[in-house]
Design brief:
Blueprint (H helix, E strand, L loop, with lengths): L6 H21 L2 E4 L11 E7 L4 E4 L4 E4 L19 H13 L44 E6 L8 E4 L2 E4 L2 E10 L7 E11 L4 E4 L4 E6 L1 H11 L13
Antiparallel strand pairs: 1-2, 2-3, 3-4, 5-11, 6-7, 6-11, 8-9, 9-10
């Protein structure tokens, strides 16, 4: 018997659709069209988005007019899946409890400290290392330096420029749609004005400045989406 969805959740779904539509309209002012999208062999291009009050928008360069349709549907609640009702997880948890480490990564009573790269102050190691997949590369605690630009930095990031390292203590990104340096002849210009505190107060930085960001697997995934033009919200553990 399927779960009956309450009117309250249906109303919330309608609101979420309206909310998501507003987010798209706010952020989608300029789009990047990849190669081969318009036709085989077509080149990449940038197009300006002009929105109308009826939720339609027009792309310049003669690309046409389109309508935005956002729909959110409430779904039935999923049955809980956890060690209390999943035989596979019950057995896995028992093995971890008995041996101390994941039996797929270690032999019984094996000390992983010679190969563990998730060092902690309490030997031999802490989860998730003892419960991780089979390779060091898949460890959630592993970090790496990833090349990017200042446009994609977030509060809490550890940055490296050359041999110098700094932490982003505060961050401000403001989206602008015009260049008014000449107040008599302003021109259209989609850009971001970025200010950051790297330990010596809030200062402006060019968004195109090359930088390396120390990334966990989660932060690296968010960075990849940000560089692709999406706007995922990254929550630093210290901000939670």
């Amino acid at each position: 018997m399927s779960e009956e969805i309450s009117n309250e959740r249906k109303q919330l779904a309608g609101y979420l659709g309206y909310y998501a539509e507003g987010v798209v309209m706010e952020w989608m002012r300029m789009i990047e069209v990849d190669e081969d999208v318009l036709s085989p062999g077509s080149g990449a291009l940038r197009a300006r988005v002009d929105w109308s009050p009826d939720d339609t928008f027009t792309l310049d360069k003669g690309l046409g007019r389109f309508r935005l349709i956002v729909k959110v549907e409430p779904l039935p609640a999923l049955p809980p899946i956890g060690p209390e009702n999943d035989p596979a997880q019950i057995w896995e948890q028992k093995r971890i409890t008995e041996y101390g480490y994941c039996i797929e990564c270690c032999e019984p009573n094996e000390d992983p400290s010679p190969w563990c790269d998730c060092r902690s102050d309490e030997p031999p190691c802490k989860p998730p290392c003892r419960q991780r997949a089979h390779t060091i590369e898949n460890c959630p605690s592993r970090t790496e330096w990833v090349a990017s630009i200042f446009l994609h930095i977030e509060k809490g990031d550890v940055l490296r420029i050359g041999q110098e390292e700094a932490t982003v203590l505060e961050l401000s990104k403001l989206n602008w749609h015009a260049d008014n340096s000449n107040r008599y002849h302003p021109r259209a210009w989609e850009h971001v004005e970025l200010r950051a505190d790297l330990g010596f107060g809030m200062s402006p930085f060019p968004t195109s400045t090359a930088v390396e960001i120390l990334c966990t697997s989660e932060r690296k995934a968010q960075l990849i989406m940000s560089e692709a033009g999406l706007k995922p919200r990254y929550v630093n553990a210290e901000d939670e």
